[in-house]
Sequence to fold (670 residues):
Amino acid sequence: MSEMAVTPTERAATVRDLRRDPGNGMVAGVCEGFGKRLDIDPLLLRIVFGATTLASGLGLVAYILAWMLVPAEAGEPAASADALRSRRNRRAALEVGLGAGCLVVALLLGFREAGLPFSDALTWPFVLVAAGGALIWRQSVGRPGARHADLREVGARQGARPVAGAAAPVAPLLLDLGEADTDSRPAVISRIGIGVTLVIAAAIVFLQMTGALAAATDVALAAIVVAIALVVIFAPFFFGLVTSLSLERAERIRSQERAEVAAHLHDSVLQTLALVQKRADDPRAVAALARRQERELRTWLTGAPAHAEGRWLAGALQAAAQEVEEAHGVAIDVVAVGDAPLDRDGEALVAAAREAMLNAAKFAGDAGAVAVYAEAGKTRLEVFVRDRGPGFDPATVPADRRGVRESILGRMERHGGRAAVHAAPGGGGTEVELVLERRGEAS
Amino acid sequence: MNATGASNTRVVLVDDHALFRAGVRAELDGLVDVVGDAATVVEAVSLIREATPDVVLLDVHMPDGGGLEVLRQVGTDVPATQFLALSVSDAAEDVIAVIRAGARGYVTKTISGTELADAVRRVHGGDAVFSPRLAGFVLDAFAGAGSGRPGPAPFAGDHAADLDQLTPREREVLQHIARGYMYKEIAQRLGISAKTVEAHVSAVLRKLQLSSRHELSRWAAARRMLD
Fold:
């Protein structure tokens, strides 16, 4: 399971900047990478590799060596450790297969050069068998320790299904599926598939070249029939296993979702309904409860981020309005145009607006909803709090409202803003206007 | 324009919540003439074609497409009928879409019965009805006043630029509506006649419906990503 002896960093040091480019390449990006490094058209290199392959097979060997030795481009997204491990594992598996094939090619070509009687009928099947066999072996019996660890992990996760006790022919498959939890299942299957195909191809090539294929036809037929029979026997079992697994998983997800929704409804809507029943004789309280619940449920349904509250102008005003609504049972409608993050002055603006809402709720709460309008412009933040109360003359402010006004007007002045109270005598209502010039956001 | 009397205004109510329809019917009882209601888009379309009411109260959100779909299907079949969107606080882009499809205004469901009847009458008389919330949405859509958040950008269309932005006076009127002022009060505060206020609001509505589709949909898309 060891990686190539040369670590990626060492490779990078010796052959600086040389990277395969699998994202753009035709096969493994070798030509693309070399082309980039040498600043020539990769098509030229492809022609060279192709020609040398056809002429002597050397091109293929060189390409495969380059595939194994030249690291892929670093730009590839290595999303997670798992993905990285899986990719490395997959690559290593193919490399082992290709490596085995190459070694055998080299060996046999060497023998042939030395005059030993290795005809094509022997050479190529040997190569295919070596590559395919290496792939299968690596996949099935490679890294036993790691696989067993995976199996234990999978077993623990899936309620310790007795994997080891499965029927013998299915066992290797299951083992591979166990491993597939860290590696993707199709990848493992396709690797085994490649290996099997290579070995079968080798057998056919050998038989074809030695002329034994005709004789082997009957045997092959029998073998195929047996294979089909086996597939028919085991396929339902296998598919049933896969289907029941995915069904089970979907069911689990569904019931989790349901439990979550139920928990939320229980904590919010049902509680509020109970409160509404208890306070049915107080319409204002009921209305306030209903509004609060509506707001909360709406936030939950739209999945609005909770962190927006208190940090941005609109969210902070909504929160303040909600508090005042709950405390005084007065409906407060907040309309916000634009939004802005709050600094210390902004927080003061919100606090002043909250005072104005409290004031309106206390002294004009019987006269209908309070309207709050906020506008976050490029140069200033403005908040208007308007009620439809009896109205008053700012010059003759009652003593008990002075404190409140102090905490509005005084606070805004301290933070570099200003506040004004517009009152329309004779039932027109009162409007508190708060303005805060925005300081340069850069400072 | 037939504004002979309040109780003669014929209204059709479209909403998928039976409870809500019953509530609105009860509230409007005696104030306007509710000639029918519908719970689905299909029902609504045939009812509107058949009854040709003066005003349709239209829910923004319904299972099979909502108010937008009703407006689209009815199209220009009933030129005398006006539409008023009536809904709980919805997403801005949905409300703006219904207005752009031809609704003459938007009020929230928390509106009182008398206010709603008043709004129906005004829509019937050809005026636009902007609730504070709609005024806020429109200001947001046109101005992109948000400066901190990466969001709705100001419209930058060179062509038909006058359709893509509001005049200072229109902005002022909309801001007052958003602040909770009645048209009468706005007229008083700005020193103009109530008719002029109406004219400004109607002009805004026209801009909203005619303005370059591209810019407003970009705003809607940006908005959807934020919410």
Remarks:
- The radius of gyration of chain B is 17 Å.
